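Protocol step 4 of 6: record predicted structures for both targets in the notebook before any analysis. Target 1:
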Amino acid sequence: MRDLYETQRAMRNVRKAAMQRGVIAILDVGTSKIACLVLRFDGPGRLAQVEGIGALAGQSQFRVIGAATTRSRGVRFGEIDAMQETERAIRTAVQAAQKMAEVRVDHVIACFSGARPRSYGLDGAVDVDSGIVTEADISRVLASCDVPDFGHDRDVLHAQPVNFALDHRSGMADPRGQVGNRLATDLHLMTVDATAIRNLFFCIKRCDLELAGLASSAYVAGVSSLVEDEQELGAACVDLGGGTTGISVFMKKHMIYSDAVRMGGDHVTGDISMGLQVPMQTAERIKTFYGGVMATGMDDREMIEIGGDTGDWERDRRTVSRAELIGIMRPRIEEILEEVRARLDAAGFEHLPSQQIVLTGGGSQVPGLDGLAAKILGQQVRLGRPLRVQGLPQAATGPAFSVAVGCALFAAHPQDEWWDFDIPAETYPARSLKRAVKWFKDNW
């Protein structure tokens, strides 16, 4: 874990340097598309942003000056499957965004889904020597957390202190400078497959770019799609992507749980392709234009021309009713939502004061999905679009861009993480494995 800690610290320093230059790129490496946004930072917040990282830093203003997307290649289940193909796709997206921005970009912050995320709830407590909480006390209390032995083939992607308690006062966001004797913290640790991170790392290096940060797609989708009240009171964000469906639960403006289901919109397209015996591109077009999950009497009569260019006139003239198409799509979408429900149940989501669920991502655009999701996941379901960001092209304001926009917000206003504090090298215990997911129920 020590080497990853150093890598994360190094990436944070690279990000600081990029901020001083004022230009940084955001890269969303997805299964169905690769999106690149070029951000320009300006205004009085820029220097303050460089001084200190986290919510305390100056509110840096940024605008999108370049945006591009390309069809993803070589990515399966949100993980790189064919290095050269993915490298070509990333180069294409970055070059197109640079051309639009008319500026060269060397540093990128990347986000990715998949990699089998796992959440841990840790806690630690120390005595405050001076009676006033300092940065060193925060370092010590984070170091006192009992780090689980999560295995040599996994890396920590996010390690965020989500709650502090000083003596008898809990629910504090930042206790620095406050008077007290006993400081305790709750830490959310998220681990992912180490190989998935390394592959992405090497792929970006091969594109002659420097990595200035890594983030989980599920996390940044929640950052851009959940409104402030939802992040504060507790809500789940379900990011329906092409190859995976990311789940993140927020509380007190922090992510407290994350998971992923290895199914997404591409699986629905695959079902249509097999059911109607058409190529994947045709299935994708049919899904986009005619898809749905709720059939009505009208849908029996609405016929869809499948089309095709096989040269077999009879085969190319086939039609299918919309009701049949819905009959193919619905079981797979139900399966994905049932799996999401199981993960939320395992996380103890029902213990949160608010039961809001927000659906986002490209797969959330299927008509009628919110109604079906309300039946399977619970009553309070809404469709989420990313927050408005200055300079973002109209084409990039839909739910499919929640991750890219969220990553831009994450770059501008990162939350404090473990590596932002000077934790002593010898305090990296890997003792008991306590996979506590219901921990937030007890702590709040």
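Target 2:
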Amino acid sequence: MSLAFFFLALCTLWIILGTTYFKIHPFLVLLSAALFLGISTGIPLTNLVGIIGKGFGKTIENVGLLILFGTIIGVVLEESKATHTIANTLLNTLSRLPLPYAVSCIGYIVSIPVFCDSAFVILSSLNKSLASKTKTPMVALTVALSTGLFAPHVLIPPTPGPLAAAANLEVENLFLLIVYGAILAFLLVIVGAIYAHFLSKRIPFSEQEIMSNDYTISLSNLPPIYQSIAPILVPITLMAIGTLIQLYDFPPNLSFFKDVLILICTPTFALLIGMLLALRLMKRQKKSLDGIIEKGISLAAPILIITGMGGTLGLIIQQLPLNEFVSDKLVNPHWGLLIPFLLAAVLKTAQGSSTVSIITSTSIMFPLLGVLGLESELGKVWVILAVGVGSMTVSHANDSYFWIVSQLGGLDIKSAYKYHTFGTFLQGTIGFVLVAFGYAITQSLFGIG
């Protein structure tokens, strides 16, 4: 058994080196890791092919459409300028707050459907305009936006990382993950905002930070706020209703009505409705829907194949009798959530991708849930949150987001390390403290967790 664990450790090391040092696509790295682990641990070759297909297919079956619909929603909000509508509305609503807090809140809302990389590109011009008009240090607003976008990206479905994690750990109540993830992400966005506000008081404003004052965003032809926010709020509301429906005992003559409601409120159908609401926004832009769908598919495809192969690796790991070895010789069950947090943090810091870190960590963690006492539905949610905050720790030079933030946020490399990287470290470490505290509270009050 110790030999199997050794091979698993080798696979983890290969995932890090393959994606960083050798620059191999994560799909190929995960595939080769799964093949090596299966062969080295004695899984018959005839069974291994079936396990690879089953693991990949099961994962895509669970989250494939969710990722696709969520990606298309994000593309439409970007192309229709709905993100600008949301940003402008939030700025007006939160005008009494210090500017870094308002920018962080913009990041929080926009990043739920839109990838943090894309969202930063979209909103960087707004940031520069605000910095120029209000004489706020660009560094502060860059950190406010980057940290505001980062937390929802790793914690709140329908972003791919949390969705893949839910599939790997077989979470049935996705709305529960959305609620807990949204609360934790909001707290971490506030952490980032506090840090950014601190920087705004310590760093003097410099016009040299703003390369040009021509950053005014046109307010013409922007969609109304109710149309812009509907693709985000409607699916979440439907999933919430779906959770409540399960608790209500319908009379027999309304059973068909209940079945229809349950169908509409499933995560896949709810996001489908959100996507249809989003596509309505494109009527104003007079752009081809075919082009939007194709762009969404092209963005979703790499995530889908990486997620599917992560599911394959997870299924192979499940074939190994790790529970007894881990509980007897390696892991103290009282370590609990520290293990998924550290695993995700090591993977993130080493290879750069938060999504790959989340997928790999949850694949490894699934067989260990029973040992750690985290096999309940809520326990799985806590594990995903621990992995999520671990996958924030830390963003540096091997992370594409680091370069987007530094290049578009007006930071040189030294400043990006000093402010952005440190900001993600703060969010990750404080996030784990909050996760551990929340888990302890639910255990002591309700005996669950």
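Step 5 preliminary note on target 2. Residues 64-299+322-446 form one domain. Residues 45-79 form the longest helix (35 residues).
Proceed to step 6 after PI sign-off.
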